[in-house]
Each structure stands twice: as C-alpha cells, then as structure tokens.
Backbone:
C-alpha cells in the first residue's frame, strides 16, 4: 500500500530460511517496526522449495537465507548480503576438545547433520572429501536449531552448522566451536526475489533495514 501522509502502511511477507532467523532478520524487523509501527510483518518458515512456489504465486515478497549456489532459475533474482563458512559445534568440555588431533576423530564421531538433500549437507560432504576423510554418518538428521542445541548439550555428538545459525549459543558460551576448518564450505547469504518484480514501499523499507543490519555486523 502506498504511504499515507508519509506513513507506511500494509504488510511485508518474508520467506525466512534458517540462517536468517537467529539474529539478522529479528534485529532488522525490530528496528524496522520501531520506525514503521503501522506495518504488519509475516514470516514463513517453510522449506526452500515451498517458499519459492509461494513467492512465484505472489504470497511472499522475498526470501532471505542461504542462496542456492548450484541453481539458477530465470524467473528468480538473487542479491548476496555476506558470506560465511560452516563450522563444527560441540558441547563445552567435550573430550574431543582435549584430543591432540581432533581431525582424525571426525569420521568416527556421532553427527547431527542436515537432511540428505540440504545444500549444507552437500557442502559438508565435499569438505570431508577434500580432507581425505570418510563421509560423516548421521546419528540424527534435523534442520531445527533448537533440536541441534539440545542434542549437543546432552551428548557427545557433533554438528556442522553455519555460524549465524547458532550465533546465540556460540556468543553466550553455551556451545563451543571445534578448532578444525572445513574447506570449501563458504555459503552466500542473501535475498531472493521474483525477477522483474517491484517491491512495495514497505518491502523496500524493510530491505534497507536488513542491509543496514548486515553493514553493522
């Protein structure tokens, strides 16, 4: 809806993928609504394929999260916001933190992994191949951050995640990053739109707050 007397009204509908939900999107929405309290913001946390279908049908204004690096669709346009690598998380005081060669123990570890068709899973498997290690075998498959957190805190399992997905747990010392680098796991985090679409004034305003939040780190 166009601004009325300089005040934005209407709604913004967002497809929110996991890597946007922990810090970036909540912070941007909070700042946005402090300036534009008349806007209704709605988020949809469905899988990527469902979000794309909803966006094509006009039910979502944009998608935010990990960009699909191996998928180019002519009716979609993407804008990268930043890049980040995957890392290995485990509980504090995990015995692997005291091991002299933790890399040698990764193949035999119990893993909490993304589902087999998830881009993050393919990146992790590629990293293991680059390191010359057997592929990790999942003890649990899940894409839910709360499930990952609970499993890691109550067991000796490991999880490979992007830093932004579990930033609260890392920043507050609830979980620890294993000092092992995973090569070739860089992911672009950004925005996906319908190609040629013109965002509403409210959507454009929220996008500017998202970009501002990225710039602030």
Residues:
């Amino acid at each position: 809806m166009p601004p009325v007397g300089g005040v934005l009204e209407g709604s913004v509908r967002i497809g929110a993928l996991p890597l946007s939900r922990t810090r970036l999107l909540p912070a941007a929405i909070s700042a946005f609504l402090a300036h534009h309290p008349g806007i209704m913001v709605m988020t949809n946390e469905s899988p990527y394929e469902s979000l794309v279908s909803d966006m094509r049908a006009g039910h979502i204004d944009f998608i935010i999260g990990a960009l699909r690096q191996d998928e180019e669709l002519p009716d979609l346009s993407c804008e990268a916001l930043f890049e980040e690598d995957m890392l290995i998380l485990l509980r504090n005081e995990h015995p692997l933190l005291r091991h002299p060669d933790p890399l040698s123990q990764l193949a035999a570890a119990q893993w909490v992994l993304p589902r087999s068709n998830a881009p993050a899973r393919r990146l992790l498997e590629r990293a293991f191949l680059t390191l010359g290690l057997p592929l990790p075998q999942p003890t649990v498959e899940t894409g839910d951050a709360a499930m990952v957190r609970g499993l890691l805190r109550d067991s000796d399992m490991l999880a490979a995640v992007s830093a932004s997905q579990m930033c609260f747990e890392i920043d507050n010392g609830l979980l620890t990053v294993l000092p092992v680098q995973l090569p070739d796991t860089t992911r672009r985090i950004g925005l996906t739109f319908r190609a040629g679409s013109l965002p509403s004034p409210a959507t454009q305003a929220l996008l500017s707050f998202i970009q501002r939040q990225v710039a602030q780190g």
